[in-house]
Structures are given as structure tokens and as C-alpha cells.
């Protein structure tokens, strides 16, 4: 889980219709629609799996950048302990009427430069004083996670289910 992963050029996801809806590429939502909502969301929902298989869902703060979602949480938190055992997770935006749901795999960011950039982005986005966490984050005592998407779903309630879109990352 402590693998070193650097930011890479964003992968272009492949769009299709989710199962259970008429197939075809007409009226699929553009990837930019989903990304704009991933960037703009204030609170995100993180779903992980407990060791006994039960789900765990919690609101978190985070940032979407370069086709990945980043967030921090305490290493002793239930979220972190769940991710240590099973890195698969789901992230959802805060507006259910324009929902974006990211299924992916989390890993701990170990690149110190990237961690500092992410802390700065979180500071800017949430106008919150993160200075009490700087030493723990810089020393890798506390994790910052990156969630690499595998599949992303988007639903726009105003447009009905017709433009519901699934993107798969390669």
C-alpha cells in the first residue's frame, strides 16, 4: 500500500452507457461534465469495506487533480485501517442530483513534493488551517491517499436517465 506513485498524464476514459439502460453513445455526458463536478464538490462521500465485509461510509474533504482524487485522514481512523486491508473504495460527490461516483483503488502518496502541493490545495479549497498537521504529513506519519479511478458513473437528474454515463479507465 505504501507504493510510490507519481502523477502521470491523465488517462482518457472510455465512455459508455451503464448496464440496464438503452445502449448507444447518443447523449452521453462529456468527461468534462464529471470532472467539473469532481473539482467543485465541497464534501465527498468515501465508502470503504470493514474487515468483516460490512460497508463503511463517511463524509470527507478532498481535491480532484490530474485524474485522481486526494484526501487525508488519520492513520488510526476506520477509513485508513479499512484501506490498509482493502484498497478498493468508492468516492461520490456531494450533489446527488448531479452525481459523480468514482470506483477506484487508494494508495498512500509518499512523494513529499506532491504531499506539500496537496496540503496547499486543501488549505486553499477549505480555508482551514492545516498547520497542525504539516509535520505529521511531511514526515509520512499521517497518510494522504490518492484514489486512482477504475470506473466512474455520472447521472444528471434534470436530464433523466438518458445521459447516464460510465467511464472506464485503462
Strand content: 25-35%
Oligomer: single chain
Q: Strand tally, please?
A: 9
Can you tell me the number of structural domains? 1
Q: What is the molecular shape?
A: globular
The CATH topology, please? Answer: Pnp Oxidase, Chain A
What is the succession of H and E elements? EHEEEEHEEHHEE
Percent of residues in helices: 10-25%
Rounded to the nearest angstrom, the distance between the terminal CA atoms is 20 Å
How many H/I helices? 4
Classified in CATH, the superfamily is: Electron Transport, Fmn-binding Protein, Chain A
Q: For the record, what CATH class applies? A: Mainly Beta
Question: What this model shows, in words?
Answer:
Helices cover 24% and strands 33% of the residues. The protein has 170 residues and is α+β, with helices and mostly antiparallel strands. Strands 1, 2, 3, 4, 5, 6, 7, 8 and 9 form a nine-stranded antiparallel sheet that branches. The two termini are 20 Å apart.
Notable features of this structure?
170 residues, alpha+beta, nine-stranded antiparallel sheet, 4 helices, globular, disordered N terminus
List the helices and strands and how they pair.
Blueprint: E1 14-16, H1 31-40, E2 44-49, E3 55-60, E4 63-65, E5 68-72, H2 78-85, E6 88-92, E7 98-108, H3 112-126, H4 131-138, E8 144-156, E9 165-168
Antiparallel strand pairs: 1-9, 2-3, 2-6, 4-5, 5-8, 6-7, 7-8, 8-9
